[in-house]
Amino acid sequence: MAGLRRRIERLGIAATAALSALMVGFVLCYWLQDYPPLGAAYEQYRIAGQWLDYYLGTNVFRHPYMWQSIATGVLIGVVGPLVGTFLVHRQMALIGETLAHTAFAGVAVGFLAAGTLGWNGSPLLAALVVGILGALGVQWLAERTDAYGDVPIAIMLTGSFAVGTLIVSYGRGQTGISIEDYLFGNLAVVTPSGARLMTALSVAVVAGVALTYKQLLFITFDEQAARVARLNVSAYNTLLVVMTAVVVVGAMQVLGVILVAGMLVVPVAAASQLAGGFRETITLSVLAGQAAIAGGFALSIAAGLPSGGSIVVVAIGIYLAAIALSSRSVARLSTH
Questions:
Q1: Is this structure's pTM higher than 0.85?
Q2: Where is it located (predicted)?
Q3: Cβ–Cβ contacts within 10 Å for residue 71, how many?
């Protein structure tokens, strides 16, 4: 039975990897469709979308913006739980919420700069810069208080959201800006540049975790031993919070600022109910994340509901199902 379960998990991860590669391919083909080979590949994506609409009786997949949203969602379903697994097991789940509010301030800065200074860049770029600065700020505060205590995180959370609300309030009078879609998530918010940004950020996060997996695992389960072993714990802590900020900025397009932390926490919580080790938790959390994205998108499109709320509600449903299937109320994981 255990062998069958492992095979199913491997097939699920292989399917997720293939789907992610397919979505990355679409983003690149859509971006570079003026080049004949990529333009021909882009047409194949469009034909595939038309066939999907035909068989499913929908009018969704023929539109490029929907493919952009799907691509962004699939990548969120990978990198969100991937980074979230480390956060949850380090009892840093609140850091995702904090950096989401910091990114909100960045979006507000981006809109204000566009309206008052004529800046033509994407608000997501401003959110990325501010989010990374916020992550570094949290790390700086944590190192000078009780490492990763709630106080510096709470200060950054409330402070950044306060700054964001002030900018939004000021900006409404100056430029008429509206960022509600970034608060609650909206599939229409995903632009070609936003999809490209999410693709680049996802590749960077996956590569970062792959290259530093052993070190991140070490500091996750025994930070003091890592310090004794002369591992640069501060640098890896900084890397983890920066990757979290990167994931948050990319995910807020679909999930919204208020709900973005859900994709960092809920799939991991569901996986922890069923997994027997840390690696299996990562595997199951990514699969749970993909299921939440697929179910949330379906609910959002069918009922015309906000994408962020739909995805998180489905994720919570998966979590409750995992509890029902598990004989444990609290998972005790090994590092394997």
A1: yes
A2: Membrane
A3: 25
Show the domain range for 234.
Answer: 63-325
Whether 139 is covered by a domain: the verdict is: yes
Query: 335 lies in a domain?
Result: no
List Cβ neighbours of 284 (8 Å cut-off, separation of 6 or more). Answer: 9, 270, 271, 274, 275
pLDDT tens sequence for the chain (336 residues): 667 888 888 999 999 999 999 999 999 999 999 888 899 999 999 999 899 888 888 888 888 888 888 999 999 999 999 999 999 988 887 888 888 888 888 888 888 887 777 777 778 888 889 889 888 888 887 777 654 556 777 788 888 888 888 887 776 655 555 566 677 777 767 888 889 999 999 999 999 999 999 999 999 888 888 888 888 988 998 899 899 999 998 888 888 887 888 899 999 999 999 988 899 999 999 999 999 999 999 898 888 888 888 999 999 999 999 999 886 544 445 455
Q: Domain boundary at 10, 33, 62, which?
A: 62
